[in-house]
Amino acid sequence: MHAAVIRSLPGRALTARVPLAASARLASAAPARPVAGVCCAVQRCAFHVARTIPTSRTATRARAANPAFSAVRGYASGSYPPHTVLSMPALSPTMTSGNLGSWSKKIGDEIVPGDVLVEVETDKATMDFECQDEGFLAKIFIEGGEKDVPVGKPIGILVENKEDIDKFADFQPESGSAPPPAKEEKSESKEEAPKKKESEKEEPKKEAPVPKKTAESSSSDRIIASPLAKTLAAEKGIDLGSITGTGPNGRIVKDDVLNYKAPAAGKATSSAASSKAPAAAPAPGATYVDIPLSNVRKVIATRLAESKQQIPHYYLTQEINVDKILKLREVLNSQSNGKFKLSVNDFVIKASALALKAVPEVNSSWQGTTIRQFNNADIAVAVATDNGLITPIVKRAETVGLSEISTSVKELAARARINKLQPNEYQGGTFTISNLGMYGISHFTAIINPPHSSILAVGGATDKLVIDESADKGFRASKVMNVTLSCDHRVVDGAVGAKWLGVFKGLLENPLTMLL
């Protein structure tokens, strides 16, 4: 039994278990046709027709478990043995390009399914690219630190046998597998030969194309640094070229920038003066630093600008008494035996989810020709990170308890701050909460996070005197907080938004009802 690998679309292979004889018939019947974007230009190459090859069961199972894995199987043709072209993966449905971080493997290393090859920075997080094939890493086309690498672009070569590694030293994805031009047939008639020579004389000689600079030849000139290290260096005005990286493959990390000590002004070395590319002197009177945009910052800028320009926002503000929440929180935390520690935001998330179930019109999304109403309340919680804002999701928040919400939010926020969230943990959601109360902000308005129809801006609790006839002086001090609901008027009418806020306020001011 063999696996028939059939080329259908660029970058994807459909693998099916078929008998060897049937697979051979399929190979002979399949017409050879070129496929754009593959590395081999040979028409007889197995990129263009069906072939039968043994396939590792482990690798097949691993690839099925990780649909983001992107690889193209190559075959022996010309001077190159069987190989797999590793491509830049699409780690999210909206990803079109990404930044390569540090490689975890080097040329010659053995690879097994599940091994981390390289870090990939998406528009939301930095993720590990796990290989789902087995073999040996024979070639790296794009070194760590490269930005805006298109999805599907070849980044490396995997071979089955270690002794084949050296054969790919000069391999390039554009033309590496192309054979030399075919020699003229001996049977060519004497009359055709002179005509061919005349046409060659008439055709002007084309200039040889300038070879592209390969990743290997340019790797010595490229400075490899993490996005955070680059940002810190820009803020501090430090030249990355003067820092020695301590990360994998000499990558400059955050601690390298923080621990860097600039040399004394009078002790500049002569090598710096003779540098091939001296740093340009700052413009006279310049008092600013240009910070390069990360992928996350680009996405934030694009999405929120589109939201503000295309979504008709309106805002509703409500004052909520949180005295009972603070007392209940204190009681529950004191009896938790250290298993959990509830915050006011945990109550806000739970109340929001229950209010969305009570007023489902708010738990909806504008789809252009329809309004999609969701059955579950998946709450996206805004988390500030060094790279920008990210919104991990508490899924089905209406069905889980306060302690589970608290644990989930803390765990998601911790991984968000080190860029280790998986795409399914921050993509989607039906409603967003942004809480700036811990920064001393009492009131603000937030921009809707598409495709959500609403976002809740939560301020901090403040003291306020309220009328209380049972008090000695007829009034007492109370803790109140302001919340502002931003709504998409295409989806949520003003009365509906007000109804949702009323339900939300009732749940927070009577928190025991959330425990029923």
UniProtKB/TrEMBL annotation:
The keyword Acyltransferase applies. Keywords: Acyltransferase, Lipoyl, Transferase, Transit peptide. Its cofactor is (R)-lipoate. Gene3D superfamilies: 2.40.50.100, Chloramphenicol acetyltransferase-like domain, E3-binding domain. GO terms for biological process: pyruvate decarboxylation to acetyl-CoA. SUPFAM superfamilies: CoA-dependent acyltransferases, Peripheral subunit-binding domain of 2-oxo acid dehydrogenase complex, Single hybrid motif. Residues 182-215 have a biased composition (Basic and acidic residues). It comes from the Eukaryota. InterPro entries: 2-oxoA_DH_lipoyl-BS (IPR003016), 2-oxoacid_DH_actylTfrase (IPR001078), Biotin_lipoyl (IPR000089), CAT-like_dom_sf (IPR023213), E2/Pdx1 (IPR045257), E3-bd_dom_sf (IPR036625), LAT1 (IPR006257), PSBD (IPR004167). It catalyses: N(6)-[(R)-dihydrolipoyl]-L-lysyl-[protein] + acetyl-CoA = N(6)-[(R)-S(8)-acetyldihydrolipoyl]-L-lysyl-[protein] + CoA. Its EC number is 2.3.1.12. Its main location: mitochondrion. Belongs to the 2-oxoacid dehydrogenase family. PANTHER family: DIHYDROLIPOAMIDE ACETYL/SUCCINYL-TRANSFERASE-RELATED, DIHYDROLIPOYLLYSINE-RESIDUE ACETYLTRANSFERASE COMPONENT OF PYRUVATE DEHYDROGENASE COMPLEX, MITOCHONDRIAL-RELATED. NCBIfam families: PDHac_trf_mito (TIGR01349). The pyruvate dehydrogenase complex catalyzes the overall conversion of pyruvate to acetyl-CoA and CO(2). This is Acetyltransferase component of pyruvate dehydrogenase complex. It comes from Powellomyces hirtus. The gene is LAT1.
